[in-house]
Structures are given as structure tokens and as C-alpha cells.
Amino acid sequence: MPFRDLAKRAGLRSCWSDPIRSSAGEVLGTFAIYHAQPQAPTKCELDAVALSTHLASIVLERARNEEVKRASQQMLRMVLDNIPQGVFWKDKQSRYLGCNRVVAQAFGLASPDEIIGKDDYELGSLTREQAEFFIQKDQQVLASNKPELGIIEPATLADGSSIWMETNKIPYQDGEGNIVGILGTWQDITTRKHSEEEQRKLEMQLQHTQKLESLGVLAGGIAHDFNNLLTGILGYADLALLEIPADSPARGFIDEAIEGAKRAAELTKQMLAYSGKGR
Predict the structure, then answer these.
(1) CB-CB contact of 226 with 263 (8 Å)
(2) 103 exposed, middle or buried (CB, 10 Å; 0-12, 13-18, 19+)?
(3) pTM for this prediction
(4) What kind and span of H or E run contains 34?
(5) What b/e sequence results for 164-195 when a residue is b if at least 16 CB atoms lie within 10 Å of its CB, and e otherwise?
(6) What is the separation of C-alpha 108 from the centre of its chain, rounded to a whole number of angstroms?
(7) End-to-end alpha carbon distance in the chain
């Protein structure tokens, strides 16, 4: 039903209204006064309408701002709770002011609100050394007013597992630029750390293999030269035996020298075999 017909049915015969405007001049609505008889508004009534529209604009604008603020906070919470990194913020005493769901779940909290007011010692799962290191880094950021980025640190979680974190911490400032705490993020780099450790082991094994190969080449060169020397020694010893009488005492010494040279030749063969494996 048209509003005019609705007003007539209700017995209303006159109306006047003012727009309700925001502080920026935007029309938020109207405020109206109705009479059962056709008549012009009095000054008192006009003043009442003006005051009412002013008060209504304050209430409506505040309600709209609160709704916008609430929607903004909900959006921020949704973003924080759906990123894979942990996000947290603390006051100047390293007590938590808030966190996202990743941090809360990691430390066995039912919701992010449960972390408010706690410090790292009170999270329960962290060792004392881990908590001390976390707080030490917080205080370094506060003292220097400079970010600490790429901090690699271990952490024990609520389920008893241990992970490696890569943490970033920056000074947290209020609207006037005063430092009121720290803002931090962390991500689980345990898989990356294990991969780096495996890579380091492989590199060490490769270096060891290269050293063995170098030793093999060196041993092969020495053995080859030494074998040539032994061949000459054995050859001259055999010639000496041909020139010495069978009953000469010197033959015993030469025989001992030949036996020693033969044992040295066996060692040389072993060195050559090792050098062959090394190559």
C-alpha cells in the first residue's frame, strides 16, 4: 500500500521531516513528525526535529562504523586463521597479546584467545631453553627497534613432537609510532632442515670418496715407482749370487735381502690393487 494511503488510514493529515545526514553529508535516513490535523510545524517542533535528526545521525553513523569495524576484524581473523604460517604479537614484557589458529593448535590451545596474557614459559610444551631463546630475541628487537629475520630455532609442540621454525620478528607500534611490543611470524621448516642435513651428509661422503680416490692415485704412483726399484734390487741380488761361491757366508745375507724384497713386492701389489679400486 502507498505510504500516503497508509497515513490517511491511520488518521494522519500533516507531516514534515528532515534528512538524517552523516558527518560527511551522506543521507542516512529521515526523521518525521505527523499530526492528525493539517497544520504547519511550530518553532518548538522544528527545533525538536533538528535536534532529533542530529542525535539520530550520531547513533546511525556510530552503528555503521562499528559494523564496518566488526566486518573488518572478521576478515582479518579469517585471513590470519587460514594462512599456513604462525602469526603472533606480544607486549613489551613478551606476554602474548594474540595469535592465529596455527600457533594456538601448535601449543595445544582450544582457541587463539587462550594465549592472551601468557609468556613462552607458560605455553607448557616448550623447554626452558627454548622459551629463554624466544624471549631473548623478543627483547633484542625491542632494544634495537630493528627486525630480526630468518631466526632458526627448535620448538617442542603440545603433541610432543619437535620441529624447526624459521621466525621473523619486528617492532610492533601503536597509532602514534610508539613501540608497544613485537609482531612475529614463523613457519615449520623441519622438512627443509632434514633435506639440508641429508645434503650435508652426501657432501661429506663425496668429499671422503674424493679423498680416498686421491690417496689411491698417490698410492698407485708410489707403488709403481717402488716396484721398479724392487725389480732392480732383486735383479742385482740374483746377479750377485751368481758371482759368490756357494760356501760363502755372504750368500745368507743376500738371500735374506731377496726375501725382504719379495715381501716388499707383495705389499707393492696390495698398494697397486688399492689404487686400482680408488680409481
Answers:
(1) no
(2) buried
(3) 0.55
(4) strand 27-35
(5) bbbbbbebbeeeeeeeebbbbbbbbbeeebee
(6) 19
(7) 101
